[in-house]
Amino acid sequence: VPSVGESWADQILRHLSDIGRGQCAISDATIEAEPNLELRQILLGHLILHEDLLSERAQREEAVREQARISAEQRRLTVGLERALEARDQFLAIASHELRTPITTLLLQLECVKLLVGRNRGGELEELKARHLPVLRRQVDRLTALIMEMLDVARINTGRLELQPAPVELCDLVAEVVERFEPEVARRRVALHVTLARPVAGRWDAARLDQVITNLLSNAFRYGEGRPIDVSVRRDGGRALLAVRDRGIGISLDDQKRIFSPFTRAVSSDHIAGLGLGLWIAHEIVEASGGQIRVESAPGAGSTFTVELPVAA
Ligand SMILES: Nc1ncnc2c1ncn2[C@@H]1O[C@H](COP(=O)(O)OP(=O)(O)O)[C@@H](O)[C@H]1O
Ligand SMILES: [Mg+2]
Q1: Rounded to the nearest 10 degrees, how much is the dihedral formed by the CA atoms of 132, 224, 208, 155?
Q2: Residue 142, pLDDT score
Q3: Who is most buried in 11, 96, 160, 244, counting CB within 10 A?
Q4: Nearest to 138 by CA among 303, 265, 283, 273
């Protein structure tokens, strides 16, 4: 509202200073009400200037917000990428170390075999059979298992983990895997209690489930500090439940969230062998079978891994 006696020049200056502060008292009504045509033009020009400035400021603010969003997204991607790269590098270091260890043992054992066969005096071939050949066999098995794990990574990452479901009695399967661990049980003198509540039948991929059970059991041996291990299979309504319990080092809550991801190991690589892939592969197999895998644990209190699978209807 122009004050009484305000000159054109004063009016224009007042509007300009308003506009500079992001405000404007000019409206369509003020323009209509202005009898002076020239002043009307000027007022209209001011209003347009004000609106242009407002929209430009809004655009600038939006651009700043967008830039902040992009930066945050980039930071997130960078952190994710760095973590993935770190996990991969650590994996490669562990993988090459893990692969070299059995090869070194194999070479040494082969030298012994050569020596004993060359001499071939009484009793020496017996020593070969009893001592060196089992070591050779164990190391070859270990290498094979490591290479299979690495192949599974490629299969899972390219979506080629194909299951072949067929009728399976889970109790039989677990008994079979447990039997394969007999030499391990004897060597480590670990008490292994197995409770099988037959029947627990379903349609699953037996070879893949074998892999899951084998990994859970070898983890229980590896991280169980030689204390008793319990394995149980039972049916609970529409689900088959497999539990592997150890009383070893346990897993912190933080690590419990990570161990089912690829390449992650909760213990340092110089402590205990393994690629850190087993639980991730187990997780992928169980999920692809329509089931779930979970862990209950606390540091020092041991761990219980439970696999839940849908049973045949
Ligand atoms: N029974 C267990 N007790 C304590 N820690 C475990 C157990 N099983 C798995 N973990 C932790 O989870 C990590 C991932 O396990 P896994 O994927 O089987 O890899 P790996 O056994 O080859 O290290 C292990 O490195 C270990 O830190
Ligand atoms: Mg393992």
Answers
A1: -90
A2: 86
A3: 244
A4: 273
Q: 31 CA distance to ligand 2 centroid (A)?
A: 80
Q: Specify the residue with its C-alpha closest to ligand 1, atom 8.
A: 219
HSE on the CB side for 65, CA within 13 Å? 6
Q: Which residues pair with 244 in a beta bridge?
A: 231, 305
Residues 107 and 98: their CA atoms lie apart, in Å, by 15
Mean pLDDT of 39-58: 93
Q: Which residue has the higher pLDDT, 39 or 90?
A: 39
- What spacing in Å lies between the alpha carbon of 244 and ligand 1's midpoint? 13
Judged by phi (left if over 0) then psi (alpha if -120 to 50, else beta), residue 94 lies in alpha
Ligand 1 contact via 243 beta carbon (within 6 Å): no
pTM over 0.85: no
Residue 270 has pLDDT above 70, yes or no: no
